[in-house]
Amino acid sequence: MTTSHDQSDQDRIESRAHLLPEEAAAGSDNAEAQASAILADSDLREEDQNAAPDTVLEHRTSDQTVTPVEPTD
Questions:
Q1: Rounded Cα gap, residues 43 and 38, in angstroms
Q2: Are 31 and 16 spatial neighbours (Cβ–Cβ below 8 Å)?
Q3: CA distances (Å), origin 29, targets 8, 15, 34, 39, 63
Q4: Is a pLDDT exceeding 70 seen at residue 6?
Q5: What phi and psi values does residue 49 have, to the nearest 5 degrees?
Q6: Fewer CB under 10 Å: which end of the chain, C or N?
Q7: Where are the domains of the chain?
Q8: Are 41 and 24 in contact (CB under 8 A)?
Q9: How far apart are CA 39 and CA 21, in angstroms?
Q10: pLDDT tens digits for 9-49?
Q11: Alpha-carbon span 43 to 46, nearest angstrom
């Protein structure tokens, strides 16, 4: 598997295991397991843009999204 910045998986996990302030406030029983899961999900989303259905970006033009309003006389 190719990773950005050519880091090994373990290096990526160790780097991500340093909790963000919000994560530290919430706490984590196992920061490395959490980091591994986050990175696995991120890798999946990067490889398959349809892996996360709520994050699919639609590409439409404005005339496909807005009903034109006819000017009144």
A1: 9
A2: no
A3: 24, 17, 9, 17, 50
A4: no
A5: -60, -20
A6: C
A7: 9-45
A8: no
A9: 18
A10: 888 888 888 888 888 888 888 888 988 998 888 888 778 76
A11: 5
Contact present, 45 and 55 (Cβ < 8 Å):
yes
Average pLDDT score, the chain: 77
What distance in Å separates the CA atoms of residue 3 and residue 43, rounded to the nearest whole number?
A: 9
Query: Which of 32, 10, 1 minimizes the C-alpha distance to 19?
Result: 32
Instruction: Give the DSSP per-residue string, the chain.
Output: ---GGG--HHHHHHHHTS--HHHHHH--S-HHHHHHHHHHHHHHHHH-TTSSGGGPPP---HHHHSPPPPPP-
- Is the pLDDT higher at 4 or at 68? 68
